[in-house]
Design brief:
Blueprint: E1 9-13, E2 18-22, E3 37-47, H1 50-61, H2 66-80, E4 90-97, E5 102-108, H3 132-136, H4 147-158, H5 163-176, E6 178-179, H6 182-190, H7 192-196, H8 199-205, E7 217-218, H9 221-233, H10 236-239, H11 242-252, H12 275-279, E8 289-293, E9 296-300, H13 307-318, H14 328-349, H15 356-362, H16 365-372, E10 411-417, E11 422-428, E12 481-485, E13 488-494, H17 500-514, H18 519-524, E14 528-529, E15 537-538, H19 540-552, E16 568-572, E17 578-582, E18 591-597
Antiparallel strand pairs: 1-2, 3-10, 3-17, 3-18, 4-5, 4-11, 6-7, 8-9, 9-12, 10-11, 12-13, 13-16, 14-15, 16-17
Helix pairs in contact: 1-2, 2-5, 5-9, 13-14, 13-16, 13-17
The structure holds glutamic acid.
Protein name: Glutathione hydrolase proenzyme
GO molecular function, one term: leukotriene C4 gamma-glutamyl transferase activity
Pfam family, one: G_glu_transpept
């Protein structure tokens, strides 16, 4: 995505240490390659950004494992993809441990303040929910960030390098800078009004009052200093020390500029995140979700993400018929229907506190049969479909409506190492640009993750599992997924895109497993997303290719959307052969690399 400058990464190898040094920009050959597909051996990295991919590959080349490389690459994304990821946000880390053949997860989701009430996003003045933008650009939307704790735990448990060491390449990129590309500039332009409200954000991303020019060098010395402070003194500086104090101050007293220059339609409200919320933050390590699909074992992220259960349920529904015997149109028809049914159930049942037996039921084959029986090969269901009644047997649904969510922020990365370990990691600050508040002097944006809660109930008279509450984590759609075959990795993938994450991951799997596509073809193919709304959301090329045939079955399409998702993936072939795959076009294209390239 980002066209980097200081990015010929050279490594100085001593007997026991590796020092990653981004070389001076032009003198040593400039930017690392930005290629969407790489094939070879010995480890692989796929991210949205060539700098982050290069950093990850360098770690692998010098003996680091997949976890080391994933942390170093993620920290770099915090510099080059700051509007989607960073230590001001949260995410979900999924790790396949090759030695023990086990999948582990880290829930590094942001949590709400201890004082958060169910009506935090309801205006006390009129009893109505705030407009989304009003809630987003405020202290109310900021949850305790979990990303740094995630990196620390991943490095401690499964890595081979200290976090301090893994932060160094990213700190150097932040110091020396990278070249602004069109995507980076556009993400700032799209946020010009909210960014202009805060002196700290304006200074960093609106120099001279406007987005930086494409081709200019973007530096972030404050973030470099923050990374180095953490490297020296540990993550306590962030959760208990001076950085915590700055985060809390930013949330409680948003650093609003005296002369914003660009008008903003809303009051900027403070939040009630406290030092005790940061000090009390704890990661969770939930068991992954698991569903079996035609002999493959699909592992995903459990609550508070709905990704694992929603992808798993949809796959189970699809598995109820033999897709190898139906037309391509029928495969797509069933993909859209399975997705709608799965979303109805997700909206009704899945939130941070969904009991495990309910989650287990949602990814069971029995439940899939109860849902799949509603699909008519000749006619699309009327949307929204009601969620299923999990206490009933047969095809009996309960009645309810649903909220359609989307969003296009977040970032995803996939890493494999020579030992067979795999990391699939999705991290976010929620909206592109998060809450729009850069913590003054620290160089990172704070998330607006708490707006992933439903502001008011969406399930009619039934309880809504995703309403705010004290210390609660908002429901996510992030779907980092690792697919095993016979206990060994077959495919790992994930994507950004708000609620469309679920459908993007599902569609890439359907493309790869059921539509006779290679992984790069499955990634590049045009996308459609049916999240239980009247009309399917789709990219123009999808509508052009499949719109007529699917229209005859009763599917309708909303206005085309330019792009859905920005996925990364790795496929594991025979004899250790790896295919690393990033987007060829979406979001400016991603970057894949392998340690030993071979076609
Ligand atoms: N906050 C969203 C989630 O957790 C992700 C945001 C996005 O990808 O746009 O599901």
């Amino acid at each position: 995505m980002r066209f980097p400058i200081a990015l010929a990464l050279t490594a100085t190898l001593t007997a026991t240490t590796v020092t990653l040094v981004p070389a001076a920009a032009s003198a040593h050959g400039g930017a690392p390659p930005q290629i969407p597909t790489a094939t070879g051996y010995g480890g692989a990295v796929a991210t949205v950004d060539p700098t982050a991919t290069a950093v990850g590959l360098d770690v692998l080349r010098h003996g680091g494992n997949a976890v080391d490389a994933a942390v170093a690459a993620a920290a770099t994304l915090g510099v080059t993809e700051p509007f989607s990821a960073g230590i001001g946000g949260g995410g979900f880390f999924v790790f396949y441990d090759a030695r023990h053949r086990r999948v582990h997860t880290i829930d590094g989701r942001e949590s709400g303040p201890a004082t958060m009430t169910e009506n935090i996003f309801v205006d006390p003045a009129d009893g109505l929910p705030y407009d989304f933008a009003e809630a987003r650009v405020s202290g109310l939307s900021v949850g305790t960030p979990g990303t740094l704790a995630t990196w620390q735990a991943a490095a401690d448990r499964w890595g081979t390098r200290s976090l301090g060491r893994l932060l160094q390449p990213a700190a150097r990129v932040a110091d020396r800078g990278f070249t602004v590309d069109a995507t980076f500039r556009q993400q700032i332009a799209d946020n010009a009004a909210p960014f202009a409200q805060f002196g700290s954000t304006r200074e960093l991303y609106l120099p001279g009052g406007a987005p930086p020019a494409v081709g200019s060098v973007q530096r972030n010395p404050d973030l470099a200093d923050t990374y180095r402070l953490i490297a020296r003194r540990g993550t306590d500086v962030f959760y208990r020390g001076p950085v915590a104090a700055d985060i809390v101050s930013t949330v409680q007293h948003p650093p609003v500029a005296a002369d914003p220059a660009v008008p903003w339609a809303y009051p900027i409200r403070p939040g009630d995140l406290r030092l005790s919320d940061l000090a009390d933050y704890r990661l969770r390590f939930p068991a992954p979700t698991r569903s079996d699909y035609r002999g493959l074992q699909v592992y995903g992220m459990s609550t508070p993400s709905s990704g694992g259960t929603a992808v798993g349920e949809a796959l189970n529904i699809l598995e109820q018929s033999d897709l190898s015997k139906v037309s391509d149109t029928q495969v797509l028809h069933r993909y859209l229907e399975a997705s709608a049914l799965s979303f109805a159930d997700r909206n009704r049942y899945v939130g941070a506190y969904t009991p495990q037996p309910v989650l287990d039921k949602l990814v069971s084959d029995r439940w899939a049969r109860q849902r799949a029986c509603q699909i008519d090969p000749a006619r699309a269901l009327t949307k929204p479909v009601p969620p299923g009644d999990i206490t009933a047997s047969g095809c009996t649904p309960a009645l309810v409506g649903g909220k359609v969510e989307d969003g296009q922020s977040t970032t995803n990365l996939t890493v494999a190492d020579r030992w067979g370990n795999v990391v699939e990691y999705t991290l976010t600050i929620e909206q592109t640009g998060g809450s729009a508040m850069v913590v003054p002097g620290r160089g990172f944006l704070l998330n607006n993750e708490l707006t992933d809660f439903n502001f008011t109930g969406t399930q009619g008279s039934a309880p809504d599992p995703n309403l705010p509450g004290p210390n609660k984590r908002p429901r996510s759609s992030m779907s980092p997924t690792i697919v095993l075959s016979g206990g060994k990795p077959f495919l790992a993938l994930g994507s950004p895109g708000g609620a469309t994450i679920i459908t993007t991951v599902l569609q890439v799997l359907v493309n790869r497993l059921e539509r006779d596509m290679t992984l790069p073809e499955a990634m590049a193919a045009p996308r459609a997303s049916q999240r239980n709304s009247a009309a399917v959301q789709a990219e123009p090329a999808f509508i052009a290719q499949y719109g007529d045939d699917l229209g005859k079955l009763g599917h309708t399409f909303g206005p085309p959307v330019a792009e859905l998702g920005a996925a990364t993936a790795i496929e594991f072939g025979r004899g250790g052969r790896l295919v690393a795959s990033a987007e060829p076009v979406r979001r400016g294209g991603g970057a894949a690399g392998v340690v030993h390239p071979r076609g």
